[in-house]
Amino acid sequence: MRRAVVEAMGRLGTPRAVAWLSERMREADGAEAAWATQALGVLARTRGAAVVAQVPLAPAEALLAAERPVEARQAGAQFLATVKRPEALPALRRCLGDADADVRASCAKGFGDVGGPEDAVVLGRLLEDTVPRVAAEAARSLAKLAAACSGPCTAVDALEALAARARRVARGMAPPAAAGASAPEGAKAPVETLARSAEGHALLALAQQGLPAFGRPVLESLRLALADAERGAASDVARADLAWLDCRLAAAVDRQEGALKEVLGCGYGRVPEARRLALGLREVAQAKGQGGAGFAVKYLRHPEARVRLTALEAVSARPVPEAAAPVRELIEGEDEVVAGAAAATAGVLKDAAALPAVEALAARVPQTPGDLAEPVAGALVALQGPAAEPRLREWLMHPHANVRRVAAQALTQLTGQRVRSARVELPANTFRPVAAPARAGLVLRTDKGDITVRLDVDEAPLTSGNLHALARKGYFNGVTFHRVVPDFVAQGGDPRGDGEGGPGYSIRCEMTRRPYGRGTLGMALAGKDTGGSQFFFTHAPQPHLDGRYTAFGEVVSGMDVVDALLEGDVIREVRAVELAP
User: Is the pTM of the predicted complex or chain greater than 0.90?
Assistant: First the structure.
């Protein structure tokens, strides 16, 4: 009960709640102080560090003492990493040597926001950590520090060491940290596991974060190391991993340039064109200080939906007038996901000629809400202004919670007054999955091994029953993991492969008491009650997800396989099984 009260105060997040939690940090016993610290860390992450700007750091620093339980040390580390205050740096530096990998990873994360040039050296040493998620956070923070450099950059120098380590592995040598250690019998050569090693996770995190233009030599050195490794790799799995990492680095280079170039030829011929283009377009959409994305217009007519979607992202982020006509065509197309994204892009382009097509799409929202409501509502507000209000008010009474939420937000934006959606009675034909058996589990077979999951049928009967039923139908066979973020999640279950797909229906969210720890199974959402078939595994504790995404199971074996997953890895089969109590 005490923990539930602390968590509830954290979700409130009012000034009085923050003050109460701050007091509990200082005066409560060890466990309650850790709960309060964690609640404040979640607040800082979800609502911004300013919310906890007056909370003293000393109680959180005290939780980092080696004799404290690991849960307390994790709470202290997560809080100090999210408050974005330079005075937290001494404690963050000390906890980089903690015995627990998740504590070290959280502390490394904090340097990305407030660290200085002097911290690059210690983060560089952390790249040698044998736990992949720790090395990934060190690389991510170094990339953030590099972005703040205006002259000689110690962060880039530290990342050069990562390239040197990758080159050693590519040549068949163990990295320096492992030198002298005897390899277990039957162990694979380092080059075979480079992509899933600490070096591989650090490399992926670096590519996803990106580097400023003066860091390009680091990216090029890493690509050369991967090419060496690919030539020496014996297995198709290793070659596929190395090819994808090469494309990730190529896309990071293209983001620096603001145009597609390197991704057009990346991946040693092993990565399909559509995946390369989708990756590159998404990355260059984020390029700062660049002009319009005229190069993306031709991809609006690409035969692959994922390419059209990412081309829309690019022209939305970097608008060009010549995109208007093909965008209108996409609004009228059969693919509703692409049509919705195109409607949103038309709103960004302020293309009044697209309004009839947007209105026709809006008329389809009541029948096929899905994720269509949000982009269409944004387009209506952008193109119609106050004239969109009557339609949006109709949506306030829609049985689908996400449509009501979208309508309320759009009306709040239009009117300048807070609008709330009403509660409505669900239709009698609302989809309700059949409950899974009491000891239900799933076994996911991948080319990297099996992952066995225990479903929480008591806490989350709808969600676990839904995935169990889909697995029995063979729904997931051949579906990929389309999103992997080191030290965060591996997400799959989308038959489209672009993060926008599902089974054609949605289920309601379930509030469970299961916290998001390492290996928790969660339901991916695009808004309230939008769960379908997409799920994710957490690499590490993620308390900011607690109570926000339905947690409905845990990995009971194969966590090493989860750690090895990369985007594009295929789920060969999912079997529904009965697990021992």
Answer: yes
